[in-house]
Write the structure tokens for this entry.
Amino acid sequence: MITEILLCDRTTGKNILWANSEFGATEIQAAQIELIRPRHEKLREHQKQRARDRAEIFTPPDICKIQNDLIDADKKSWTDYIDAKFLEITCGEAPYLVSRYNAVTGEPIDIKNRVGLLDRKLSVINRETSTPNDWINFTVRAVQSIYGYEFQGDNLFLARKNVFETVKDYYNEKFSRKPPEDFLTTIAEIISWNLWQMDGLTGSPPFTENKNLFGGANCLIKDWRTGKTFEFKDLAEGVRQ
Ligand SMILES: C[S@@+](CC[C@H](N)C(=O)[O-])C[C@H]1O[C@@H](n2cnc3c(N)ncnc32)[C@H](O)[C@@H]1O
């Protein structure tokens, strides 16, 4: 169930695509997720190929930390901080958002040493809330506030999974148990909107840009405060103006 949600493409209504040199424009099926390996576990040849095809080189946590320190929101209150929006463009396995492991070496990172932008929000929530209800309400808002897009479907699935597992980690750290199932479903649904598959050069799902002529292939994102969906390209154009 969670896996199916984490494979959803909210723009096409189908599953996200592999969009790599092995599987091309075919959808990732739930039965295939065992084939997905993080970059640090991929064969050296595949790593090189992906660096050539898609400039795939991942950022180590010490660099993510330096850069996240620079952009970390300086907000009036901790609740404003939870709502501050961030987007990791071409997010790979999303090391700027969450840092369960070193994206270069694969070495696990203890929860106390994590540096991602969502990690920072969740550690504030762990500090500032006391009841599970409050924790859940603020965590929903925190996950709604972080965005990322990526071309290659295996990276995107791992980015989504990393965010999902991070939320579980912080709940366990706070309450020493697993979060409720309905909350996890809600989190997976938010993630399936907020981390999406897009060719950043076209604003469309990979390999679909020509279909723009017939409408409907521009990637959709959601503003959770209003509940409205937007085409990402309109948002990006608004920022450029
Ligand atoms: C240099 S890696 C950075 C990944 C991650 N942000 C990090 O810092 O570790 C670049 C990522 O961009 C993705 N990518 C390449 N071309 C893209 C495109 N046209 N649109 C979206 N993502 C793209 C690659 O698949 C790869 O995961």
